[in-house]
Write a structure and sequence with these properties.
The complex is a heterodimer of chains A (about 130) and B (about 230). With about 130 residues, chain A is mainly alpha-helical. Chain A is built from five helices and two strands; from the N terminus they run H-H-H-E-E-H-H. Chain A has helices at about 5-25, 35-45, 45-50, 90-115, 115-129, and strands spanning about 70-75, 80-85. In chain A, strand 1 and strand 2 (about 80-85) form a beta hairpin. By secondary structure, chain B is mostly helical. In chain B, about 70% of the residues lie in helices and about 5% in strands. Chain B has helices spanning about 10-35, 40-55, 70-80, 80-100, 105-130, 135-165, 170-200; strands at about 60, 65. Chain B is globular, with a radius of gyration of 17 Å. Chain B is built from seven helices and two strands. The chains are: A mainly alpha (about 130), B mainly alpha (about 230).
């Protein structure tokens, strides 16, 4: 492995460590307020359209960025019903799994999509010849 | 800005789905030529960072939050086509793994954030880059402008889709979406410039759109100095 290639690997792993730390440590403290689209949907009265619709995909393993076994049961102040809410550990861990998981998925995808080295080499020879 | 199931009608879902599939399909073909030794780990890192950063909602005006989208960052690091693939992958993983964004709206979400917010925004970057002096500060300014437009125009596309679907009239949805995302876009610009500055300080050679012939995506095999 030459020096530049090694340098890129070190840069990439350092970047992954920073990303994973952001997801694990910072994401549980992110703003819980609705985002731009949710806010508009709420204000303009069409949020129900989503709430009344059965999701087309129900098998997400980490729904709403949480690890279900780690969620805590809390009593809803308005309805008095017990609802599940992601704990900070649950959110952070889901973020960590997602960040590391997508890193390897993207790496695998890029390797598959990349031109095989032999073909790339042959082309370089053609263009330099 | 992830559209859930229930907001779009079938027609809009199908049309945006076809448009998104076309862009992703073309991106996958381009990837063959654009992925070099450097781009493989960088594509993995960009995906991981953007996924993590999208979780970090920051508060904006009046009980609303915004979060980073990352289209311009991905496009400037990897070029518009690989950048668009990164955003599409992030959205796919968020939809299937985390129930964020509806499966029936996945095409629209990829179109809004991965095509409008990445490829179109990249050309806004190139336009700004061409008009401004070739200095690092102006490279970053162009990135900031494109990042802001990325969020602003994505939200506009989303509003148009909501209107055509009969979910909210354009006269209501468009100003509301553009208004709040004009503010969220400032956060996008700040994060994009911060991350780019950091990468340019450490490894400028890894920013594909920054180099001797700045503002131009270098193809495979082009000389990279530095």
């Amino acid at each position: 492995m030459d020096r530049t290639k090694k340098g890129i690997i070190i840069f990439t792993l350092a970047g992954l460590a920073i990303s994973a730390a952001l997801a694990l440590i910072l994401s549980p403290w992110a703003s819980p307020e609705p985002d731009g689209l949710e806010r508009v949907a709420e204000d303009k009265g069409f949020l129900e359209k989503a709430e009344e619709t059965e999701p087309a995909w129900k098998s997400a393993p980490l729904p709403d960025y949480s690890v279900p076994p780690l969620n805590q049961k809390v009593v809803d102040e308005e309805t008095g019903e017990e609802v599940e809410e992601p704990s900070r550990i649950s959110t952070g861990l889901a973020g960590l799994i997602g960040t590391v998981g997508i890193f390897f998925i993207a790496w695998g995808l890029a390797v598959v999509l990349k031109k095989p080295p032999r073909e790339a080499e042959a082309e370089t020879r053609e263009t330099t010849a | 800005m992830h559209i859930p199931d229930g907001f779009l009608n079938t027609g809009v879902s199908v049309v945006t789905g076809v448009a998104a599939a076309g862009a992703v399909g073309y991106g996958l073909r381009r990837a063959r030529d654009e992925l070099d030794e450097k781009a493989v780990p960088l594509m993995a890192l960009a995906s991981a960072f953007i996924f993590a950063a999208q979780m970090l909602n920051f508060p904006v005006a009046g009980g609303t939050s915004g979060h980073f989208l990352g289209g311009v960052l991905a496009a400037l690091l990897l070029g518009p086509w690989l950048g668009s693939l990164v955003i599409a992958l992030v959205l796919l993983v968020q939809c299937l793994g985390f129930a964020d964004g509806g499966l029936t709206a996945l095409g629209a979400n990829i179109f809004n954030m991965g095509v409008v917010g990445t490829i179109l925004a990249f050309y806004i970057f190139q336009l700004a880059r061409g008009l401004l002096p070739q200095k690092r500060s102006f490279y970053l300014l162009s990135a900031a402008v494109a990042a802001w437009f990325s969020v602003f125009l994505s939200s506009g596309a989303c509003a148009v889709e909501l209107a055509i679907s009969g979910t909210s009239p354009l006269s209501v949805a468009l100003p509301a979406m553009l208004g709040i995302h004009a503010i969220i876009g400032i956060g996008e610009a700040i994060i994009t410039v911060s991350v780019l500055s950091l990468v340019l300080a450490v490894r400028p050679d890894l920013v594909r759109t920054y180099g001797p012939r700045e503002g131009e995506v270098k193809g495979r095999g082009a000389e990279v100095s530095g």
